[in-house]
Design a protein that fits this description.
Aldehyde Dehydrogenase, Chain A, domain 1; globular; 24 strands; alpha/beta; 6-stranded mixed sheet; 475 residues; 7-stranded mixed sheet; 14 helices; Aldehyde Dehydrogenase, Chain A, domain 2; 2 domains
């Protein structure tokens, strides 16, 4: 399958050329260029804002049936186009086809869930004396500026588009320049399902230029951002200048508490697969393994054995379990973080090196006995590296899990029911997995606390974030 042409999508029109600057999209499996992506100029962004303003006036008056029909139609088209969407995502992001196919189906589930949820955006009538009436209603917040990263090139745009459309908002999507074709393909499914062209726009550009331009406009009433904590803090400050509502899904540094009474084989089978999924480029990736002393040695050995069997290669190759990293920046980050940790005394159990001289491959890596002052223990590595340390007891393990300012996902493995409930309550995280790596679902809120952001996507909460609450009192 050939890589598709790239463009901006503004007011239902595909825009390219015209002297616009371009960004070269690269296949991370080979390092070879795929296509040139046109970047929006100021006039393009103004056109997108004007279209979003018109689209909001149209879409806010749409019925629940209208919105459900578009979302269900887009879900059906994604099922029909699953292989095409998956291959695009693998070409431009690097993940395996199996992972990309699953990502498409994640979007299908989310859009179908939202299609049902649009009929449940209830208000309420308050109890008042005769002759008075007070109501609480839900209304769409307005045009949304949505910023999506490259690590889930289908799923992230789906989240950013689905919730505003379900709520009756218009949206301007700024997806990652590394993975534009996936985002455009998701948007095209919505348009082909009947979404008016002025309701959703897709722009690409120099990130700081685009974000400053969109967030400076009073047309935008909400910002949704998924990405790193430093960039999220910057965008939150820009949004605060106009008191825009924000949903921020930021970085994490997932702790995994493993107790001696856990089913160690089940834990290892689950955690090793979860750690190296998408080459570790997952915000909820299990990363800091906080292991009780009694099972530390067998856990470490079992982790090394399983990680050593992971086949790394082109995501289009069915034999590959892990694809390349998405861009050379991540390779440089791995070299820096792993090298600094080893210099401070960490034990490199396996990996820690680039693979080959073509593409952006990095070996599955395990570090043990990692000092707490190593940068990798305090900075999200966002790569295929597991950090495994020994801890004496429950109190020390909880303290380590909560030590960082991040609080996105956390995991605990124990057979003790009372401990499961106790640890789940004590962990400072927006999502907790107890004896499982599955912490998301179309009907479940996805989001974090502390430096991992605020608000939630998915579930009823995802649409709620795109609504305002209005109280109406009649005398």
């Amino acid at each position: 399958m050939a890589y598709p042409d790239l463009y901006l999508m503004i007011d239902g029109q595909r825009l390219s050329g015209g002297g616009r600057r371009t960004h070269k999209v690269v296949n991370p499996a080979t390092g070879a260029p795929l296509a040139d992506l046109p970047l929006a100029n100021a006039a393009d962004l103004d056109a997108a804002l004007a279209a979003a303003q018109r689209g909001f006036r149209r879409w806010r008056d749409s019925t629940a049936h209208d919105r459900a029909a578009v979302l269900q139609g887009a879900a059906r088209l994604m099922v029909e186009r699953q292989e095409e969407l998956a291959r695009i995502a693998t070409l431009e992001q690097g993940k395996t086809l199996a992972e990309a196919r699953a990502e498409v189906m994640m979007n299908v589930g989310l859009f179908n869930f939202y299609a049902g949820e649009v009929f449940r955006l209830y208000g309420r009538t308050l109890v008042r004396p005769a002759g008075q009436r007070s109501m609480v209603t839900k209304e769409p917040v307005g045009p949304v500026a949505a910023f999506a990263p490259w690590n889930f090139p289908i799923g992230n745009p789906g989240r950013k588009l689905g919730a505003p459309i379900a709520a009756g908002c218009s949206v301007i999507l700024k997806a990652a320049e590394e993975t534009p074709a996936s985002a455009l393909a998701v948007l095209q499914c919505l348009i082909d399902a009947g979404l008016p062209g002025d309701v959703a726009q897709a722009v690409f550009g120099v990130p700081d230029e685009v974000s400053r331009h969109l967030l400076a406009s009073p047309i935008i009433r909400k910002m949704s951002f998924t990405g790193s904590t430093p960039v999220g803090k910057h965008l939150a400050k820009l949004a605060a200048e106009d008191c825009k509502r924000t949903t921020m899904e930021l970085g994490g540094h997932g702790p995994v508490l493993v107790f001696a009474d856990a089913d160690i084989d089940k834990a290892l089978d689950t955690l090793v697969a979860g750690k190296y999924r998408n080459a570790g480029q997952v915000c909820v990736s299990p990363t800091r393994f906080v292991v009780e002393s009694d099972v530390y040695e067998p856990f470490l050995k079992g982790f090394i054995d399983r990680a050593g069997r992971i086949a790394v290669g082109d995501g289009l190759d069915p034999a590959s379990i892990m694809g390349p990293m998405a861009n050379p920046r991540r390779l440089d980050a791995m070299d820096r973080l792993i090298g600094e940790a080893a210099a401070k005394g960490a034990t490199l159990e396996m990996g820690g090196r680039r693979i080959g001289n073509t593409g952006y491959y990095f070996a599955p890596t395990i570090l043990s006995n990692v000092p707490l002052d190593a940068a990798i223990m305090n900075e999200e590595p966002f790569g295929p590296v597991a950090l495994i340390n020994r801890h004496a007891d429950e109190a020390a393990m909880i303290a380590e899990a909560n030590r960082l300012p991040y609080g996105l996902a956390a995991y605990v493995w124990t057979a003790d029911g009372a401990r499961q409930r106790r640890i789940a309550r004590e962990l400072e995280a927006g999502m907790v997995g107890v004896n499982t790596g599955m912490i998301g679902g179309s009907d479940s809120p996805f989001g974090g606390v502390k430096w991992s952001g605020h608000g939630a996507e998915d579930g009823p909460e995802g649409i709620e974030a795109c609504l305002i609450t209005k109280a109406i009192h009649e005398g």
